[in-house]
Amino acid sequence: MYHKYGAVVPDQKVFDERKENYLHRRNNFLKDKKALEDLKNWKAKNNEFNYSEQFQKGLVAAKLVGNVLPDGNPYEKADTYFSEYDIHNKPSLILSESPDSFVIGNSASYDGRQYPSWYNSSWGNGVDGNSPVGQGFGHSLVIPKKRIFNVVDPEATANGCAVLEEMKAHFIDFWERGDGKRKILNRTEQILAERNEMLLASHSAENDYGTIKSQIYIDFESYKAKFLTLEPKDLIFAFHIYPENSVGHLHMHVFPHNDSLRIHSTKRHDWKTVPIEVVLEAEKESPSQEALK
After folding, report:
1. Which among 102, 59, 58, 96 is positioned nearest to 77, based on CA atoms?
2. Is the peptide bond before 74 cis (omega within 30 degrees of 0)?
């Protein structure tokens, strides 16, 4: 049994608000001729098309287009960071693969202390600033192999939301395998180590990051012990709805409900985080295919 209410949706009132917001944004997208034209060309990998400014925000940064990547093929104009993930990234970043989707770890640390303002003033205190810190310990993502733009893309919710159901089922299957949780923990610790190395290489005497680093690892061990006790019902499976998404390729966020595993993680995205249960209920009541007519 999943938790209908929890960290990002505490009660029925908020559940209904998220459902209304999802339907509003989905219907606006389906009525936007330019957005649908963007969608059609993006699915066709059209690098010559003039995408709208809003749609471009979800594509790879222009400065990366054509650059040789150390671990995969160069990005093209119509690519996102998740599209054709396996040809742009090294295999070790894929924690699990099904015929239809990948499970990957979040590339950002869950710990806001690794995003100090002395390194980047826009990050604030790391949790509430503009840093990319994750939404919880072990924050992971599930991405479909097929080019599906966002949960507002009709292909995401076609056939009774089959794509979304597969993504969740894939993660749960991965989680319940013997090595699933360990793979997530290994990736989480790898990101911690990479951030620490970068910060220690640039910190000064007045920014004594070494002390903070020690506490981060102490906390990591405590979080790890709690994380290993979690079951699928203790996890949030959710989406950020266009245009509040960061990457223009469908991805499901997975992280713990438990606030004790979100102490140093950001909650500034909670308002736009829509659990899969909200989408499933909304689509049952008002299917995308009907809204397209």
Report:
1. 59
2. no
